[in-house]
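## tool: complex_structure
## caller: assistant
## args:
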Amino acid sequence: MTTDCLHCGDPVPQHSEGGADFCCKGCRGAYELINGLGLKTYYERRVIDPDAKVLRPEDDVVKIDYRAHINDENGLKTLYLMVEGIHCAACVWLIETVLGKQDGIVQARVNMSTRRLVLKWREEALDPNDLIAKISALGYRLVPYDPCLLNSENEKQEKELLRAMSVAGFAAANVMLFSVSIWAGYSQGMMESTRDFMHWLSALVALPAVAYAGRPFYRSALTALKARRLNMDVPISLAVLLAAGMSLFQVINGAEHAYFDSAISLLFFLLIGRYLDRRARGRARGAAEHLLGLNAVAVTVLSEDGNKTLLPPEQVKVGMVVLCAAGERVAVDGQIIDGISDIDTSLISGESVPVMAKVEDKVFAGTVNLSAPIKIRVLATGEGTLLAEIVRLMEEAEAGRANYVALADRVARYYAPVVHLLSFGTFIYWFFFAGVVWNEALLNAIAVLIITCPCALALAVPVVQVIASGRLMRQGILVKTGTALERLAHVKNIVFDKTGTLTLGRAELVNKEKIAQTDLELAAALAGTSKHPLSRALCRALPHIAVKSGVLEVPGCGLQWEKVRLGSRQWCGLAEAPLSDGPELWLDKGDGVPVCLQFADHLRPDAKEVVTRLQASYQTHLLSGDRVEPVRKVAEELNIQDWKAQCSPADKCEALTHMEAALMVGDGLNDAPALAAAHVSLSPSTAIDVSQTTADAVFQGDKLKAVLEVLGVARKAERLIKQNFGLAFLYNSVTIPLAIAGYVTPLIAAVAMSTSSLVVIANALRLSKGKVS
Amino acid sequence: MTSLLYLIPAMLLLGGLGLAGFLWALKSGQYDDMEGNASRILYDDDDKPLPPEEKI
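## result:
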């Protein structure tokens, strides 16, 4: 009977290193640390999400020297860290309390929304590495970040919008109160002096607010005008400023009508939309950045006297010797001068089986060193690496896409001149033909500007997008760019990458049934000591097998324990054979009759279903960097007619240029240029950082269904946006004639404006629930 | 109508106080972590405030 580990809740394997109650030494250490500090309530407080496992403390994580990242702030030592593994508020409490119990700590504060920790302490003697080792021992991973670089621009803008929104909200509420009494005064007979007094009060509140809260719009409008373009913010700014300016003029002259309420509530509504939009996208981008930041690594450089120093990748120079530990990502291009290992090149080539690398072989930045430490002489760094080459290719491809103009701006291009002409025409008509005084003619002209108020139009797109991205975010899909949804709605072709996109990107044991149980257990017991993906796959297939001690790993060949060998064909004394379908391992128990363990990279569980459903409305394609055989197999299994194997990154870009409105779904570095070149792109959250940054949206989880969902939501969003535009135009076609005829009073303007905005918002809300096809 | 003379300034003052309070809260970082703060109040530890000079 198995028991559950007291720390992580996984079943405890037999002969566990951690004793009877724990699955491993790490969990036991974490439990003892928590208990020792008297924080046992953590286990009662935590709420474990069944999908997100408690992180198990690992002893083999890449060591970071945190001392290099200390900032000095007002005499306090400060460290900014990103935390991986926070799943509920109890984690926040645990981290803060454990750190808070250390002497000298002044502040330890975790921000749960952004998963960041700020640590401040006073004493010089306190070693941050010790502090952080305690948290790492609990199973969290901490990575330093630079607070100036990360997200600060975005946060600043978000805060500015929030401030502007609160000011506009305050002013709108108060001006509305004055306006209600003025409107009431029309019917009940208010004294002129009282009305003017109320108007003056409105001006007092509204004018500073308009000047302050409108700045985000004015700035954007000015930028657009400077570039000789028109965007939605131009008519908005013009309407607000003219309405406020004209009202002031009216009030000075003691006139009957003033439009302060229209001007300020227009701003308030628009700022709500703008703020929500910014926040939804900021959160998606923040989450994506968080995933990326965790990959930050330092390079271990060996100096001539044998000393090791950790340097950031940009400080490494050609000719230096770099040590790359097993399991680490290679950060430079270079040549191996010592050691043999297996290199996982899947991110560059798309090839799923690791290749053996020995002295004199070349390795490239972005690949992962799997089995043994190697020393590399640096041949190229930073800009000179193959990785940078691919990134450049990607940036070129991206430049082409920058030409896409958002739907709202395309509408504004036609809409703004029409409105401005109408307004000008109204002035001409009243002044020259109807023969009224100039300021009355101007009043009517401005009424046209206000009533065609871009409110509904300006809200039409952002409200729908906010609701759409909120809905997608709940399903683990992060939409990062503003126009991604619009572009997704026009997709005609869908291009998939194979490894890691259609497949899970990890090998699984396939012939488990055909092998004797004792052989399997023996193989797994050996494999437990190795980091090679096939060994890992074997351990996943047979969990809870006690690991043998004294297993020797021979890089590039396999494992040996006494007379038992586990590894490649040659390692078990067999002749070289033609490449088979998938990777394989051989087990030789010393009796000379090796057993073959076959592996395959499985398709995502719902790949078949999703591709079939996509084929009903889209053309599907498969472009892979892998060998012909595995690609053909996947293409046949999924019934994708158009497939191509052994594509270089440039080939993929080239293929995309012949397709109309293509959606690229890919994860590897070799896909990154294609992701940038495609009309729109999607990548799984297991993808390499460069791809995630490039892709318009990132999806989490094992299911490919996200592709269907994202396309469905995008199409529905497109439909709703068009409906919203329709509603806004319908409303305008009724009110513009009224305004031109000079019938619009502030009361009519206020009612018409709020109803049109509410209708647009209500229509957009339909997206939050219900099924999308 | 004379009641307006003190009601309106009172209204503006109260509204203005609310606005100032909100802007202060925003500036002092109280809106930075909505998710964390929502659950933090559930733990009744001795969460002592920072000494005044350490306030961030």
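## assistant note: The longest strand of chain A covers residues 76-84. Residues 451 and 749 of chain A are 6 Å apart (CA to CA). Handing back to user.
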